[in-house]
Amino acid sequence: MTFENSSSETTFVFHSIGFVRSSHTDQSKTPIQPVFAKQSKGTVILDPAYSAGLVDLEGFSHIYLFYVFHKTGETQLSVRPFLEDKIHGVFATRAPCRPNKLGFSVVRLISIEGNVLNVEDLDILDGTPVIDIKPYVARFDARDDVRSGWQDGVTDDVAALRGRRGFRENDDPEKD
Hints:
By secondary structure, the chain is mainly beta. It has one domain (about 15-140, about 150-165): YaeB-like (Elongation Factor Tu (Ef-tu), domain 3). The chain is about 5% helix and about 30% strand. It is built from 2 helices and 10 strands. The strands form 3 sheets. The chain has a 6-stranded antiparallel β-barrel.
């Protein structure tokens, strides 16, 4: 990692530690969140140079995958998310058109074979570069006192409908 500090900008350079293999080869058909990718299987192929970092990871049921949205377009600071028609600031969404194109997903870890992680509930485009892996730890990560901003106003039924790729507004039962 390279670090340069100037008066208005800090620059970080990350290098891929591996990449994702999934059945999601069409960006427009890739699930928008792991919850909409139930049982979608895939693998993370880790550069063998980092294999020693996988020691003891097999004891965790879920992991965070941090990756680069390598196929996304230009940065947009205002976006219309899948779950709502209202425009929101990009930082109030998980939209991929972010300034730094950083994505993350919580996926189920099925097994590890050498430098290959077999995962499930995968919502990541095939070939996506992975920049880090961290274990999901319920003691640290689960919260009871959560507010989810504008998403608190989206019902589970509407989220299940609008959250899938290919959703058409004509299918929306809340639209008249």
